[in-house]
Structure prediction request, 228 residues.
Amino acid sequence: MKQPGSEKMIKQSPYDEKWWEEWERKGGWRPEGWKIVEMNDGPTLNDLKPEKFLVVHRPHGSMFHHSYGKVSQFFIGLLEGKLYGTKCPKCGLVYCPPRAHCFNPKCRLAETKWVELPKKGEVHSYTIMAIAWPSMAHLQPLVGAMIRIDGTNTCLPMTMRDVDPEKVNIGLKVRIDIAKDPKGDLLDVYATPAEEPVAPKRTPEELKRFREDMEKTRAWVKKTFGTK
Ligand SMILES: [Zn+2]
Prediction:
């Protein structure tokens, strides 16, 4: 019987321990560093083979070090500027967010395979956030959207940029962008419109209330963060 064995370091971006006191404020719970390691993995101890895992170092009061396990390749892909999903070899469903095992009952948890995805998709649903977590508060009003990436059967939640919240609509074609300095978490991925957005139909009263809400949010952001 084999053993999983110790981890072998492949690549890393270490975090700076000097910033301990500032981690939570600075990181806003986003990873401050990461390492890609190789370990033996498999369905049983008799069936082990080397596999790559991404471990991130995430400040959250104290520092948490956690692995993304079987979906590591998705986050390793983000570090390389690529978008990956998983495909079931039995029924062909494509997952992004990735699933290590197919959830179609007929497939009896078949292990999926990694596939590279195109960086485009469309808005399946969305919400406009006027309460965001500290590291993103200055971006409010922020559009959070469920995006169906072309060729996939599920939706990936992400934020939208370069779009007027008033004009976001279901069905809007988007480009998927990956941050230039990826940290190894889902906030590395965001969407921007790939076509001229057309506002959804609203009654004059709805539009008035919507604009008032946006104005209040923008005024609060300006007061709190200045004009940056
Ligand atoms: Zn399947």
Q: What stands out?
A: The chain has two domains: 8-116, 120-225. Residues 120-225 form one domain. The chain has a mean pLDDT of 90.
